[in-house]
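Fold this sequence, please.
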Amino acid sequence: MKTLAAVILSAAILAIAGGAQISAHHSHAMFDTSREVAITGTVTNFVYRNPHVFLFVDVKDEKGQVQEWAVEMSNISNMERRGIYRSTFKTGDTVTVKINPLRDGRAGGNYTSVTTADGKTLD
């Protein structure tokens, strides 16, 4: 009986420890959450998968050079609660995305909201 109790206790501890690692996933330390910037451009790809949905947008800089921005979003269930579905964005759509930019200066960030060409804001 003691052996069975030890096995059950060990399994419970491992399950809790494993769950803690899964929920930790990763931090948002790579994003500058003290700043929010808006980018406007053309959707080139919308990757609708877990653990994160990604929106790729071609943005013209002040010199007219096009740069692709990678916008990290949340998981599919969170996106659907916000009204964002697999069919929401299509290649060629014009969008304005508000993001917390990457700290290292690369063209990307974590989205805070996105406004479609028809003026609908999803956040």
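The domain at 37-122 is CATH 2.40.50.140 (OB fold (Dihydrolipoamide Acetyltransferase, E2P)). The first strand starts at residue 37 and ends at 47.
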